[in-house]
Amino acid sequence: MHKSSPVIDSKLPRVGTTIFTVMSKLAADCGAINLSQGFPDFQADPSLFDATWRAMRAGRNQYPPLAGVPELRQAIADKVASLYNAVYDVESEITVTAGATQAVFTAIAAFVRQDDEVIVFEPVYDSYVPAIETVGGRAVYARLGYPGYRPDWQQVRALISPRTRMIIINSPHNPTGSLLGADDLEGLAELTRGTDIVILSDEVYEHIVYDGAQHQSVAGHPELAARSIVVSSFGKTYHITGWKVGYVLGPAELMAEFRKVHQFNVFTVNTPCQLGIAEYMGDTSRHLGLAAFYEEKREFFRDQLGASRFELLPCSGTYFQLARYSAISDLPDREFACWLAREVGVAVIPVSAFYRDGQDDRVVRFCFAKQEATLAAAGERLRRV
Questions:
Q1: How many domains does the chain have?
Q2: Same domain as 268, residue 246
Q3: By residue range, what is the domain housing residue 109?
Q4: Three-state DSSP class for 201?
């Protein structure tokens, strides 16, 4: 036992344990079905493991280049060109990262300086604001309109100031499942035209878009692409969230700054996993078929809740389903989520956790990236509420 510890003026005085950790622990403690944290409970394709194992056995186990193995960067470039008609230079405009969270933090650290402002949209994914505050920036909050969770670009216009350094967008959006359309990208381009504002576009669910819609990537909008760092995730696409491998796209000038930080907070990413993913990407059906795969799960889960008292909100992308519970309880959403885990045996995320002021619309988030048996068991419990 140390006699005394240094007194630290916390950089993040309002940050505690994340709601995801809290609810997953509660699920484990209560034996509840965990539909809170966003990860699959099913296995990835064994051929991906085989490809990674072959790379290990071939001796590809030492440091890769800082930006990622050439094979993976080329596979990413080919995918982006095919999907978005966008050309990114393999050497200078694509970097492999240790997951999307690292990519987001590194981009913020590279471009946001003391007292710079960063516009975020509430409900906001929980890693953005702590990263901004860690580097001395200040988050400025726009709000997606409930219940459709659409941005108001006139509101954003009013928030832009001479200190605005970055705008962070997220589509398909976690936690709401809403999408940005082509008109939204045009609105964003118009607002940032003639400025030095950097766009950080979190597109980790880019392949999980429903009902025949097309993902509108910033990479496919030349004017925005010129000022944007685009983030994606192999964890979400190939059901390997624990591998923590993602990537970023950006014009060479921005990527050079991104890599200055990347080389010192991560340097490089697991070599054989990169090579396994690169080989696996050769079959494009593996990412092109993802929307249909998850749309089937979305429909199965929505059917499970159809006879319940939960009111399902629209879900246009991601593997998250929001639901209003006001017909069941008038408890605040955090209390309701704890009650649901303890008494009903299903763990969810209260959406107020994604608001700075704890705005509570009596809405919770379910993750349906689960086996049908898991979703059916949860549905049986939820229909009894």
A1: 2
A2: yes
A3: 48-283
A4: strand
**pLDDT tens sequence across 83-92:** 999 999 999 9
**DSSP assignment of 44-96, as one string?**
PPHHHHHHHHHHHHTT--S---TT--HHHHHHHHHHHHHHH-----TTTSEEE
Band of the pLDDT at 125, cuts 50, 70, 90? Answer: very high
* Domain shared by 264 and 235, yes or no: yes
Distance from C-alpha of 127 to C-alpha of 297, rounded to nearest angstrom: 27
Q: Both 235 and 129 in a single domain?
A: yes
The 10s digit of each residue's pLDDT in 34-73 is: 999 888 999 999 999 999 999 999 999 999 999 999 999 9
Q: Are strands 164-170 and 117-122 parallel, antiparallel or unpaired?
A: parallel
Q: How deeply is 237 buried, as exposed, middle or buried, from its count of CB atoms within 10 A (0-12, 13-18, 19+)? A: buried
C-alpha span between 323 and 305 (Å, rounded): 10
> Does pTM surpass 0.85?
yes
Q: Is the dihedral of CA 166, 220, 231, 254 positive or negative?
A: negative
Domain membership flag for residue 256: yes
The tokens of 374 are what?
């898991």
